[in-house]
Amino acid sequence: MTNSPPKALKYLAAYPETLQQQAQRLLDSGRLASWLLDKYPQAHGLRTDGALYRHVEALRQEHMRQTPRLDRVLFDSKIHVVRHALGLHTMVSRVQGGRLKAQHEIRIGALFRDAPPPFLSMIVVHELAHLKERDHDRAFYRLCEHLEPDYHRLELDVRLYLTHLEAGGERLWAPAASP
Ligand SMILES: [Zn+2]
């Protein structure tokens, strides 16, 4: 067996050792949550799939006109965050009026419904980039950075949040439960 990192740091496994140690210290000292909240005090306000669709489709039209119009964009509570990275982009074929029609859809992990605007931006950019680049290769990340210059920093911060949750921390931007 290899010397694997502690379970809570699995989201950071691809980062340098020194960064993982820093994250571990923040986590151990109980300061990771407040560090995240200081940096990202507010949640975005997109509550519905309809609002999410309009947001994502507007971005696509602005930056990626040559890609096909999206048929659906939704928050999906069934997305397993680790397995599918963070979201899911699919091209499904559906029978419509007796004809098979390709449908382009993007599913965003429901976790991102309660998240600050930059986190939503990171995951949306990631999934939009997949409309053109399938794999997580150099061309893919170049496109992500073109769409969101802070992409890499944001992906790291999203992963720090996932680390916080994995370690048993509470959701930081969840709205107060209604009575
Ligand atoms: Zn991906």
TrEMBL record:
Q: Which Gene3D superfamilies does the annotation name?
A: Metalloproteases ('zincins'), catalytic domain (3.30.2010.10)
In terms of CDD domains, this protein maps to: M48_yhfN_like
Q: Where is the YgjP-like metallopeptidase domain?
A: 100-154
Q: What is this protein called?
A: DUF45 domain-containing protein
